[in-house]
Write a structure and sequence with these properties.
385 residues; alpha+beta; six-stranded mixed β-sheet; four-stranded antiparallel β-sheet; 13 strands; globular; binds alpha-D-galactopyranose
């Protein structure tokens, strides 16, 4: 779809700039970002596209061809509308709370990131709006600041107490690299990620993520509860990152059973993510795949965030020729899986999976081969053609 022509039909004339903002797939390091752990996402080719032109009034007017819906709000009245434009309002609201300049604009927004499926469709939209405000007002912000502002938008306005991974992945990923992010200090390392004979397949289970945000917030609370209890023995621990699996094992029996399982996942997953990165850097993809499998098992048995569909998809995947590992990605409770597989087997894998999945669940899965793409960027601008 050519957004510029949609723009000119809708608003007349041409947009003054356009930008792209990708979704992300997390390869490993799940539910650890809000525990100061390490995560390893890549940006994917599914993305939010936005083209924009400044307005003379204080309104933001957005048209979505996907929903065939035009919505707007005034920068002087950021009341939630319980609609997709809330993500833009969320960013505007944080911008204003931080004393940053906003500006009215009109634009066309489109996205092929599957919605609410664990590929960060919301972070992708938030970062797109943030870049639009920066471009419109000539302000500059570091990538970490943009991510932190967008995370605040999600936490405060949308009401999901999410960590920093998604927004950082969307803004800071680089093509052909996975992003090793230390969520404690936002230090990042670009880990080369070009798979020659292998590739990643992302499968959308098409299962709705009901109650996902309340279950997500509950997991966070259980982590805080576990940390507070463990601080009795480890008073210097500022977060679960500071407690090793061995240290945890010494006292795991003294925690309430459910909290103990949640913490076991977190401390194990933080260690596992670093082991997986070491395997990747050593070129040991088989080991990397095993770490993906272990991560899924831990999310299923200890953290309790998988679903019947995600377990079916990953179990099924592991039995197929050429598969090195398979796991859910993102918050869970539905959404997507990611599978590491020999490249020449991927097409057939997706087709057979769709058939077997439909027989088992009556749902229509979708699948994509994904490479590591670049993070969000302004594509064209009249000031900077
Ligand atoms: C969601 C959140 C992230 C992260 C993941 C789980 O995507 O937005 O901050 O916590 O879940 O790893």
């Amino acid at each position: 779809m050519n957004l510029n022509s949609v723009f000119s039909e809708r608003f007349g004339g041409a947009p003054s700039f356009s930008l792209r903002s990708p979704g992300r797939v997390n390869l490993i390091g799940e539910h650890v970002d809000y525990n100061d752990g390490f995560v390893l996402p890549i940006a994917v080719s599914m993305q939010t596209d936005l083209c924009v032109r400044a307005r003379d009034d204080n309104r933001v007017v957005l048209y979505s061809p996907l929903f065939d819906s035009q919505l707007e709000f005034s920068l002087d009245d950021l009341t939630k509308q319980n609609a997709w434009i809330d993500y833009a309002q969320a960013v505007a609201s944080v911008w204003q709370n931080e004393g940053l300049e906003t500006r009215g604009f009109e634009g066309v927004v489109s996205s092929d990131v599957p919605l609410a499926s664990g590929l960060s469709s919301s972070a992708s939209f938030e970062v797109a709006v943030a870049l639009a405000f920066l471009q419109l007002t000539g302000q500059q912000k570091s990538r970490a600041d943009i991510a932190l502002l967008c995370q605040r938008a999600e936490n405060q306005f949308i009401g999901v107490n999410s960590g920093i991974m998604d927004q950082m992945a969307v803004i800071a990923c680089q093509k052909d690299h996975a992003l090793l992010l230390d969520c404690r200090d936002l230090n990042l390392r670009q880990v080369p990620f070009v798979l020659k004979d292998h590739c990643l397949v992302v499968i959308d289970s098409a299962a709705p993520r009901e109650l996902a945000s309340s279950a997500y917030n509950e997991r966070r609370m259980q982590c805080e509860q576990g940390l507070a209890l463990l601080q009795k023995w480890y008073p210097e621990a500022k977060s679960l990152r500071d407690i090793s699996p061995d240290q945890f094992a010494l006292h795991s029996k003294e925690l309430p059973e459910v909290v103990g399982r949640r913490i076991a996942h977190v401390v194990g997953e933080i260690a596992r993510t670093l082991e997986a990165v070491a395997a990747l850097e050593a070129g040991d993809l088989a080991k990397f795949g095993r770490k993906m499998n272990e991560s899924h098992a831990s999310l299923r048995d200890l953290y309790g965030v998988t679903s019947m569909e995600l377990d079916f998809l990953t179990d099924w995947a592991r039995k197929q020729p050429g598969v090195l590992g398979s796991r859910m990605t993102g918050a869970g409770f539905g959404g997507c899986t990611v599978t590491l597989i020999e490249r020449d087997k991927a097409g057939d894998f997706i087709e057979r999976l769709k058939r077997d999945y439909e027989v088992a669940t009556n749902r229509h899965a979708r699948g994509w081969v994904c490479e590591a793409e670049a993070g969000a960027e302004i594509l064209s601008s009249e000031n900077n053609p």
